[in-house]
């Protein structure tokens, strides 16, 4: 009995380090406050559709893939303008300096989607991917590694879209159990962490989002970015879902792509002109009603870009983590403690869109120096009903 008790305690300790949720957002560096009552915010100022706990969604055919398991309209919206910098802050336990954000074993990509808020409450082909980061072969770091080093923060630039109310849907995909599909073994499979954050855009001069992808539907078991062996030998990682949408670009298709990619940022010249003197605040909306079932379509995507930064621009401080989809492309990050060649290989800089030729392909090789032993079927986050 004693040994079983120790095993149980070890499992709880492991799970307590695993999961994560979005606690709050920043607009141009200004904290908008805790986003929901689940993370300690006040009910009348809530703007994040937060789940009741920090567990992942694993069934990619579930309606919960849109906004997680608590897709309930909140009373407030964060006010933003095209060109604003929006930062999402993830935490495991709380907004503290010693919070572990998410278990370091939960390696995988970080992506952000955008959709108009309609009566469909996130269902239907309305989602555009506006930012994505996967694996950086030069630093051998995943997006989750960078997220942890940046204390749970990652950022996007608001594209130039028509005024209105929108969801921004930050998403982490943890791949530590993705070698087995959830549909084949319910205790395993890729883990999806996402929430829908409510925003209201004003001052935009762009069009409505074109037709995009649906959740569920954007990801399938056949996607190599969903069914992926983190512990085996691999040369590429394919970000699941569509390519990153380039605001104002000619419409392509709304179909998911399996092109290998490590990081992507869409460009929008129109959005850069709207970035001057942005303002931000959380605004309440008493007209929010309960979700209904009608669907409004709007969205489609175009090719993304991945840009190597020139060495003539000064690199930002260690820990910077910014996905930009307007005039400033790709961010970048020098991991804490990197020195010499390692620091040189892993640092990058923000670049003006006018300074570089933007390639249209997203491909990279990933060759880990050594393969880690795959966890057994009894390892990982079997107990995903844990509310830690």
Description:
The protein contains 5 helices and 17 strands. The longest helix has 15 residues. The chain is globular. The N terminus and C terminus are likely disordered.
Structure characteristics:
388 residues, mainly beta, 9-stranded mixed β-sheet, 4-stranded antiparallel β-sheet, 5 helices, 17 strands, disordered N terminus, disordered C terminus
Write the layout of secondary structure elements.
Blueprint: H1 2-16, E1 21-27, E2 30-34, E3 48-49, H2 64-67, E4 76-80, E5 85-91, E6 110-116, E7 128-133, E8 135-136, E9 141-142, H3 143-149, E10 153-157, E11 164-174, E12 191-194, E13 196-201, E14 263-265, H4 269-273, E15 281-284, E16 328-329, H5 340-346, E17 351-352
Q: Into which percent range does the helicity of residues fall?
A: under 10%
**Shape category:** globular
Structural class: mainly beta
Order of helices and strands: HEEEHEEEEEEHEEEEEHEEHE
Strand content: 15-25%
Q: Which regions have little confidence, pLDDT < 50, spanning 5+ residues?
A: 1-17, 248-387
Round the Cα radius of gyration to an integer and report it: 20 Å
Q: For the terminal residues, how far apart are their CA atoms?
A: 25 Å
Please state the average pLDDT score.
72
H/I helix tally: 5
Q: Summarize the biggest pleated sheet.
A: 9 strands, mixed
Number of strands: 17
């Amino acid at each position: 009995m004693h040994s079983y008790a120790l095993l149980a305690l070890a499992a709880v300790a492991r799970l307590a380090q695993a999961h994560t949720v979005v606690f709050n957002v920043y607009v141009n560096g200004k904290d908008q406050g805790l986003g929901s009552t689940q993370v300690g915010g006040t009910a009348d100022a809530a703007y994040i559709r937060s789940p009741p706990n920090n567990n992942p969604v694993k069934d990619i055919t579930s309606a919960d893939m849109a906004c997680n398991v608590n897709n309930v309209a909140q009373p407030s919206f964060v006010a933003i303008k095209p060109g604003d910098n929006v930062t999402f802050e993830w935490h495991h336990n709380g907004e503290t300096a010693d919070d572990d954000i998410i278990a370091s074993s939960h390696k995988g990509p970080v992506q952000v989607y955008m959709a108009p808020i309609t009566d469909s409450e996130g269902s239907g082909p309305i989602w555009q991917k506006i930012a994505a980061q996967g694996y950086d072969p030069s630093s051998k770091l995943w997006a989750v590694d960078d997220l942890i080093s940046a204390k749970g923060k990652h950022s996007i630039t608001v594209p130039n879209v028509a005024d209105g109310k929108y969801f921004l849907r930050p998403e982490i995909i943890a791949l530590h159990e993705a070698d087995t599909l959830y549909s084949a073994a319910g205790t395993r499979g890729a883990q999806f962490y996402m929430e829908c954050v409510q925003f209201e855009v004003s001052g935009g001069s762009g069009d409505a989002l074109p037709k995009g992808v649906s959740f569920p539907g954007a990801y399938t078991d056949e996607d190599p970015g969903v069914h992926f062996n983190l512990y085996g030998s691999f040369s590429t990682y394919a970000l699941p879902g569509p390519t990153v949408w380039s605001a104002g670009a000619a419409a392509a298709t709304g179909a998911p792509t399996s092109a290998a990619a490590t990081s992507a940022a869409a460009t929008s010249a129109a959005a850069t002109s709207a970035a001057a003197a942005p303002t931000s605040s959380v605004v309440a909306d008493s007209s929010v009603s309960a979700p209904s079932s009608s669907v409004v379509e709007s969205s489609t995507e175009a090719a993304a870009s991945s840009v190597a930064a020139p060495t003539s621009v000064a690199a930002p401080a260690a820990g910077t983590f910014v996905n930009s989809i307007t005039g400033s492309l790709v961010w970048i990050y020098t991991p804490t403690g990197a020195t010499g060649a390692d620091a040189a290989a892993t640092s990058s800089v923000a670049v003006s869109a006018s300074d570089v030729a933007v390639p249209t392909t997203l491909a990279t090789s990933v060759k880990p120096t050594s393969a880690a032993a795959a966890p057994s079927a009894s390892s990982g986050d079997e107990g995903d009903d844990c509310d830690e």
